[in-house]
Design a protein that fits this description.
This protein is mainly alpha-helical. Helix content is 75%, strand content 0%. The N and C termini lie far apart (32 Å).
Length: 76
C-alpha cells in the first residue's frame, strides 16, 4: 500500500485528530499540485481564462492566486 492508501486509511479512521491531520495533508498536497500544474499550463502558453475553465473557477480568482508566481507564493 502506498502513502495514498495509508493516508486514506487514517483519514477514514475513528480518531478525529488523525482524520483532521490527514485532511490537512491532502489539502496541502492538492494545493501544491494545482500550483505546479498552473505553472505548467502557463509555461505551455495557456491563458488565465483557459486555466480557470479547467479548474472551474473565475479567471480573476486564478489570476489573483497565481499571477505572482505559483511556487513563490505558496498557499493562499
Amino acid at each position: 500500500m502506498g502513502n495514498e492508501g495509508l493516508l486514506a486509511d487514517v483519514a477514514s479512521g475513528a480518531n478525529p485528530a488523525d482524520g483532521l491531520r490527514a485532511a490537512r495533508a491532502l489539502r496541502e498536497l492538492a494545493e501544491r499540485l494545482e500550483a505546479l500544474q498552473v505553472e505548467n499550463a502557463r509555461s505551455h502558453g495557456w491563458s488565465w481564462q483557459e486555466i480557470a475553465v479547467v479548474l472551474g473557477i473565475s479567471k480573476q480568482a486564478v489570476h489573483k492566486k497565481y499571477a505572482g508566481g505559483t511556487l513563490r507564493r505558496g498557499r493562499g
